Amino acid sequence: MKNEKKIPFSFFSFCQIMSNRLEEISNLSDASDHEEDWQDAETEQQQQPTEQVKERKVEIDESSLRKKIKEIQEDSSLSPKDKAKRIQNLMSHGTTEPSSNEQLQNEIYSKSYHKEQENILGCKHYQRNCKLQANCCERIYTCRFCHDDVEGHNIVRHETKNMLCMLCLHLQPAAQHCRQCHQQMARYYCDKCKLWDNDPRKAIYHCDDCGICRQGKQEDFFHCKKCNICMVKSMTDHKCIERNLECDCPICGEYMFTSTTTVIFMPCGHCIHKHCYTAYIQTSYQCPTCLKSLGDMSEYFERLDKDLERQPMPPEYDKYISHIFCNDCEKKTPAKYHFFYHKCGHCGSFNTTVLKTENTEETARGESSNEQQPLEQAMQRPGMNHDRNTMAGPSSSRTNNPDSNEG
C-alpha cells in the first residue's frame, strides 16, 4: 500500500463543476433583473443596536438590580404582565432611568434620518417621513427593525395602528399622507403590512396569498399555491414542495418565508439562502435537506469510475459487499465494498448511503449451518435414535449390528 498512488481526480475539479452549477442558478435567479426575487420587501438588516440605544444604556449595579427586581415581584398591586415589563426595563437600562420624561419625549418627537447629509428622513433601514407606534408596547420607533433591536419582543407589523409624522410631529392613525400637513409619508405604503418605503429605486407589491409585501414588479411574478411563495414567471416548471418556504434555512437556521435575504430553489426543489448555498457547495454536492445531487454530477462520477478501476481494493476485501441506498434514484442495491465510494447498481450514481456491510463468507457459513439445523432438530424428537454414529431409524437395534458382542 506504500506505493499506492493518490486518486488523480482533485477536489478542485469538483469545485469547478459546482461553480458552473452555481452560475446557472445565479443566472436563473437574475432572469427578470431582480436580485431579490424571493424576499420579503423589508430590507436586510444587521442585528446591531442603534447608537441612540447605546447612549441610553447604563451600567447595572447588580445588588441594586436584585433588590429592585425583588420589590417588583413582591408588589401585589402589579399584574404579571406589568411585572414582566418593569423587570424587562431594568434589565435593558439598569437601575437608573435612561432619561427624564422630557428628554424622552424630545427624543421621540424628533426627526431621524436615513441620510442626514442629503436630508433624507428615515432610519438606517428605510427611507420614510414617519415613525410608527408599536401596538404591543405603544412605543415609537422609525421602523419595526429599530423596535426589535431594542425591545425584548418582536413587533407584529399588521397590528400597527398609529404613526408619527416627522414633518409636523403629529401622532395620528397610520396612512400614506399626514392628516395635519397633508404631506406624503412614502412613495409606497401598504395598509395591511403597515410598510412605508420612500426609496425611488424600489419596486414593491403586496401579495395577498403570501400575506406580506414582496420586492419586484408584480407583473414579473406568480404565486405558487402549493409552495405558497411568489416566484419569477421563468420558474413555472419548478418542482413543487408543499409550503416550501415555511421552514428554516438548512444552513443558518433563519426562517425563510419572511427572510430579508435572497432565497433560491435548488434542483431538488428545496430552498436555501443564496449566500449559504454559495458557501455550502464549496465542500458538498448534496442537498443539505434530502441529500440529492445539486447538479449534473455525471462527469465527476465517470472520473471516480476510472479511478476505482485503476486502484481496486486489496484482495482481502473481495469477500465484503455493502448494501446501499441511492440518494438520487432512491433505490436499494448491493455494491462492492470500498472505503469511500459505493456505486448505485440502478442509476450509476456515487451519491449513496451505506446501510450495512456484509462478509459474504460468514453469511455463506451461516446459511450452511441453518440448513443443518432442521435435521438436528428432527434427530432430537421422541422415538428417534440419538446415536450419531449409526444414524439409525426407529426400527434399528444394536443387536442387528454384526459387530455386537451380545448374544
UniProtKB/TrEMBL annotation:
Enumerate the spans annotated as RING-type domain: 249-290
| Domain CTCHY-type, residue spans | 185-248
Domain CHY-type spans what residues? 116-183
Coiled-coil residue spans: none
Where along the chain is composition biased (Acidic residues)? 33-43
Region Disordered: what ranges?
A: 26-82, 359-407
Report the source organism.
Rhizopus microsporus ATCC 52813
Q: Where is the signal peptide?
A: none
Per the UniProt record, which residue ranges are transmembrane? none
**Gene Ontology biological-process annotations:** protein ubiquitination; ubiquitin-dependent protein catabolic process
Q: Can you cite an annotated GO cellular component?
A: nucleus
Q: Where is the composition biased (Basic and acidic residues)?
A: 52-73
The UniProt entry, under Pfam families, shows: zf-CHY (PF05495), zf-RING_2 (PF13639), zinc_ribbon_6 (PF14599)
* Protein name, UniProt field: Zf-CHY-domain-containing protein
Feature: compositional bias, Polar residues? 366-375, 392-407
Q: What molecular functions are annotated in GO for this chain?
A: ubiquitin protein ligase activity; zinc ion binding
